[in-house]
Amino acid sequence: MSEIKIVNLRKQFGDFIAVQDSSFTVEDGEFLALLGPSGCGKTTTLRMIAGLELPTSGRIYLDGEDVTFNRASARDIAFVFQLFALYPHMNVRRNIGFPLLSQGVPKAEIRARVEETARLLRIDHILDRSVSGLAGGDRQRVALGRAIIRRPKCFLMDEPLGTLDAEFREVMVHELRELHNRIHATTVYVTHDQHEAMAMADKIAVMNHGVIEQYGTPREIYDRPASMYVADFIGSPPMNFMRFHSGLNKGMRSIFLDDVEVAVPEVGEDVAPGEMALGIRPEHIRFSDQSPIRGAVYGSEYLGTNQIVAVETAVGIVKARVSADHSFRLGEAVGLEFNPANIAVFDCVSGRAIA
Ligand code: ATP
């Protein structure tokens, strides 16, 4: 068992609130990604869990035990930083085994565990190499090896792939997830990269200005964003927002976009008249000559298997991801059709999803 639970966790630096009353539970064996732009409080949250930063208020529990005021070394947590330091004068074997050496583990056991760890990370063939000559991906694997050899209850990782080039990053994303599938250690992973979070995590916490805007599975976050912020942060291109001015009543099943009635999922509450937005992801738009929602092709981006076509409409530019079969002319008239099940409606004042 290794469950991490944070309750109303808050961190202030002077008057500035870096983390605002956050609560979540990472269940045993789960992989959580803390996702958000630079400065939103991800690292501060992680450092509090690690015991490197004291919360202003709130509680941290590991396996039900209140560890809020425990020292970092008493928490049985492994922290993998972006800028890890390997010992350059030691070979791979000694780098990986070092944490056990400093714990006084017998030499024979260290040897066996280093080899087991290296096999897990597929670096058993470079155990006797010097770390100074290793490529980025292998260095990262050695750093991971050093973290997992202790068999900690939990892993905390702060942008561990941040320094790798794009190609290695992608390989490591899959390796990290595969490693997680094999060792099932409870993990909290900080990243600003939505693709990393979507590809690796069981759950994602999307953060904005110190607040967790949404906590859910990658599918929930992508399909049912709780706010315009989340809808805009996840997905590329992000969700389209088509604005309209209206009041909404609970139970409504349609709205008017520039006088065209559009079916939407059921509105969940009454909202006073104001600016609203219909949200639809680019891949949930179809072109249809019969549709009354009209526009003119404004530009297109060919992606091989499909294309992103930007369409100028009466309610702004809308991007659709459609088959690459057809080439569109600039200015070509098109009709846009949306599947009601894939539509979201947002209150632009609060930013919250209401349908
Ligand atoms: P990044 O990816 O850039 O590290 P982040 O989401 O991890 O971003 P944090 O590092 O948690 O963000 O920082 C959140 C906010 O708290 C930032 O505005 C940062 O400047 C501020 N902050 C962090 N540590 C301190 C500190 N020791 N003193 C004052 N302000 C701090």
Automatic annotation (TrEMBL):
Alphabetical UniProt keywords: ATP-binding, Cell membrane, Membrane, Nucleotide-binding, Plasmid, Sugar transport, Translocase, Transport
Transmembrane stretches, start-end: none
Gene Ontology biological process terms in this record: carbohydrate transport
GO cellular component entries: ATP-binding cassette (ABC) transporter complex, substrate-binding subunit-containing
Principal subcellular localisation of the protein: membrane
InterPro entries: AAA+_ATPase (IPR003593), ABC_transporter-like_ATP-bd (IPR003439), ABC_transporter-like_CS (IPR017871), ABC_transpr_MalK-like (IPR015855), ABC_transpr_MalK/UgpC-like (IPR047641), Mo/tungstate-bd_C_term_dom (IPR008995), NA-bd_OB-fold (IPR012340), P-loop_NTPase (IPR027417)
Compartment(s) of residence: Cell inner membrane
CDD domains (alphabetical): ABC_MalK_N
GO MF assignments: ABC-type transporter activity; ATP binding; ATP hydrolysis activity
Membrane topology summary: Peripheral membrane protein
Occurrences of domain ABC transporter (ranges): 4-234
Domain of life from the UniProt record: Bacteria
A Pfam match: ABC_tran
Similarity field: Belongs to the ABC transporter superfamily.
PANTHER family named among the record's database cross-references: MALTODEXTRIN IMPORT ATP-BINDING PROTEIN MSMX, TREHALOSE IMPORT ATP-BINDING PROTEIN SUGC
UniProt protein name: ABC Transporter ATP-binding protein
Organism of provenance: Sinorhizobium fredii (strain NBRC 101917 / NGR234)
